[in-house]
Design a protein that fits this description.
Order of helices and strands: HEEEEEHEEEHEHEHH
Structural class: alpha/beta
Strand order of the largest sheet: 6-5-9-7-10-8
Bound molecules: zinc ion
Radius of gyration: 22 Å
Strand content: 5-15%
Length: about 280
């Protein structure tokens, strides 16, 4: 819920299982990146490394596949939330700046997160895979139960039918240009379930155009819930570690600003009343 001043009334991330923010709160000033020597606060957004004082003190997230993020060259590095993923899940996340992108030799093992005309939902992709495995084509009347609707008798986790997932990190109009690249446009595409963004720097007016780190996080949770009988236990929540910390800082600053502004208004009103 948002009030008239654009502030969230309740913390949308209250239920996330996040590591302590103490290391971030205690960190004073800026430090030099150990790789490029640039002055950085929490992490280097060009080397994707935490500052020395945070090494071993921030959470590490494991993702069940390789994740590539293709960044538009005009996207400002320091503002990109894709960097959060590379810092928090360094083993699986790779960032590329367009037009430099990897060669995807086997498109059947790759999935591009992009709302193209032929994009499918995660549920549809899992169902299609299940049908392919059982030898039934998609038009068959005798369809097997969808992969996502597992019964309690089958506690196994459904295999994830891809090895690599690609996200595009850019504004909506820039992402269209990247998608039209011949190396990407024929890859199978997936669309995410709609979610509201809480990105404070959102450039697109649409409420559901997510920051890249939000998109990665919601994708992982949706995929987990569709492929596992186990209850989601927050294992990817820490991908939102920096995002939530920064979000709360911005909300706090906004609240303080409004407080000061209201005080000023009150003072002016009292003063004017006194004059007249
Ligand atoms: Zn650096």
């Amino acid at each position: 819920m948002t009030d008239s001043s654009g502030l969230e009334e309740t913390d949308p991330f209250a239920k996330l299982k996040l590591a302590s923010f103490l290391p971030l709160e205690k960190l004073e000033g800026r430090s030099k990146c150990s790789a490029c020597e640039a002055s950085r606060k929490f992490f280097c957004y060009t080397c994707y490394l935490p500052v020395d004082k945070l090494i071993g003190r921030i959470p590490a997230v494991e993702i069940p596949f390789q994740l590539d993020v293709i960044k538009h060259p005009l996207e400002v590095d320091g503002k990109s939330t894709a960097v959060h993923a590379a810092v928090l899940a360094p083993k699986q996340v790779q960032l590329y700046t367009y037009p430099c992108i990897p060669e995807y030799k086997d498109p059947s093992k790759v999935l591009l997160v992009y709302p193209s005309e032929s994009a499918k939902t995660i549920t549809e992709i899992l169902d299609q895979e299940e049908r392919a495995k059982t030898g039934l084509d998609s038009d068959s009347e005798e369809a097997t139960p969808p992969a996502c609707k597992k019964t309690k008798k089958d506690p196994k986790q459904t295999a994830i039918p891809f090895e690599r997932i690609i996200f595009i990190d850019s504004t909506w109009s820039q992402s269209k240009k990247i998608f039209n690249d011949e190396r990407l446009r024929d890859l199978p595409c997936v669309i995410l379930a709609e979610q509201k963004t809480f990105f404070w720097r959102s450039q697109d007016k649409e409420d559901n155009y997510l920051a890249t780190i939000e998109a990665i996080y919601y994708f992982l949770v949706e995929l987990f819930n569709l492929t596992s009988d186990l209850q989601y236990a927050g294992q990817y929540d820490n991908l939102m570690y920096f995002f939530v910390y920064m979000y709360r800082m911005v909300q706090k600053q906004k609240k303080n600003y409004i407080k000061i502004h209201k005080k000023k208004q009150k003072k002016t009103a009292t003063h004017e009343a006194g004059v007249s």
